[in-house]
Design goal:
Number of helices: 6
CATH topology: Alpha-Beta Plaits
Number of domains: 1
Structural class: alpha+beta
Radius of gyration: 16 Å
Length: 175
């Protein structure tokens, strides 16, 4: 029976961005990876950790970020629900938008498709709407998938990196 389910619903390739700027940041990232695996998201590769300033308020603690490539059987909305649950398990609390947080997981890519779902005030847009502007997403993604292409913008990752301002490239470092 399980084999039939797998045939009917093959694993989807996904990319997730994991970030943290509170507590033991390396531990938070490792916990996120462990919890993702425990809920059935198979991590295939992971970027190095990148450190960048907090945005939009650089006075907040710096962020540590990675991007992971994984496989999942979850459909997009269920994937979002599960990663939000992982964030809470690691210690994320409700706070104001863009405030420091223990864990933030964003869906960067789902099966290389553009997805937009609007349901009762909850929007899900994949790829993340601002991923193409974020050095802390683009650089780790480029590290693990140099041929990735944005499904809506129809631009290769290298082109998206070239579109970043030079100060954005210089303001991030690989740990």
């Amino acid at each position: 029976m399980i084999e039939q389910d797998i045939l009917e619903n093959p694993a989807k390739s996904i990319y997730l961005s994991i970030g943290t700027n509170l507590g033991d940041k390396k531990l938070n990232i490792n916990k996120a990876k462990i919890y993702l695996e425990e809920i059935g998201i198979k991590i295939l590769s992971s970027s190095c950790i990148y450190e960048s300033q907090s945005w939009p308020n650089p006075k907040f603690p710096n962020f540590f970020n990675i991007v992971v490539k994984a496989n999942t059987y979850f459909k997009p909305q269920k994937l979002l629900k599960e990663i939000k649950r992982v964030e809470v398990l690691i210690g994320r609390k409700s706070s104001l938008r863009n405030y420091p947080r223990v864990c933030d997981i964003d869906i960067i890519d789902y099966d290389n498709k553009y997805i937009e779902i609007n349901k009762k005030h909850k929007n899900l847009i994949i790829p993340h709407q601002r991923m193409h502007l974020r050095n802390f997403v683009l650089l780790p993604l480029y590290e693990i998938c140099k041929d990735w292409k944005h499904p809506k913008k129809n631009k290769k990752i290298f082109e998206l990196l070239q579109d970043l301002k030079i100060k954005n490239i210089r303001s991030i470092k690989q740990l």
